[in-house]
Design a protein that fits this description.
4 strands, two-stranded parallel ribbon, 227 residues, two-stranded antiparallel sheet, 41% helix
Length: 227
């Protein structure tokens, strides 16, 4: 009987530990593999290209909804975690989207961080309404690297959420051309996005594709023009 009692106590302790740690398992381990299209359709929004970078930059930051902090049990670094906050095909009933369009203190991302732009909100809404598919496409053209058409939207989508006047990650602001140019001139921009030794890895979570790194490098080498 004594041995049975000891076994019971051990099992109860193990169960308590497992329950208390249920959010500590990185959801990345259980994530699904995205479908890849050889080209990008202008009528579609892609999770890997458009939504995941947006969420990592604006929502899945340290202290919020990253894999380590997972505030309120929410991890938005990977597709599996995102889908727990989404009702595929219905953005209006998806907690992810509803929290983004709020105007009170419960808005996501919370103040002092900037609210998502109208373009970002449209992308999230359309992606959900299109079925919230775990998809990606190939569209990068490394021969194109103008600031207005390539560099500015790339940084806005993948970096600016952590580097704006309301959320100066590392004390770096990337919300304007002047600020982006200054970061490029100092070597911090490319050093960070290329994950070079001695620099903070940016964006957090996943390194930029080789084509996008090439575009940034080409823009810098061409004189960092506001073109």
């Amino acid at each position: 009987m004594k041995n049975n009692s000891k076994v019971f106590v051990v099992l109860m302790i193990l169960n308590t530990i497992l329950v208390s740690c249920k959010h500590e398992i990185p959801e990345l381990l259980n994530d699904t593999i995205p479908t890849v299209s050889a080209s990008c359709s202008t009528d579609s929004v892609y999770f890997v290209n458009d939504i995941q970078p947006l969420l990592i930059s604006n929502c899945a930051m340290s202290g919020c909804h990253d894999a380590i902090t997972h505030k309120e049990g929410i991890n938005l670094t990977a597709y599996v975690g995102v889908m727990r906050e989404v009702r595929a095909g219905n953005a209006g009933e998806s907690s992810l989207y509803k929290s983004m369009i709020r105007t009170d203190e419960d808005r996501m991302p919370p103040r002092p961080a900037q609210a998502l732009s109208a373009d970002m909100l449209t992308k999230v809404r359309n992606w959900i309404n299109q079925g919230a598919v775990n998809n990606s496409c190939t569209s990068c053209d490394q021969t194109k690297f103008t600031y207005s058409a390539v560099i500015k939207p790339l940084i806005a989508n993948k970096c600016q959420g952590c580097h704006n006047p309301g959320s100066l990650g590392g004390g770096i602001d990337l919300s304007t051309y002047t600020a982006v140019k200054a970061s490029a001139q100092s070597g911090k921009l490319y050093g960070s996005v290329s994950w070079a030794a001695g620099f903070s890895k940016m964006p957090q979570g996943s390194k930029l594709p080789a084509c996008e790194l090439s575009q940034i490098k080409s823009w810098i080498d061409a004189g960092m023009l506001n073109n």
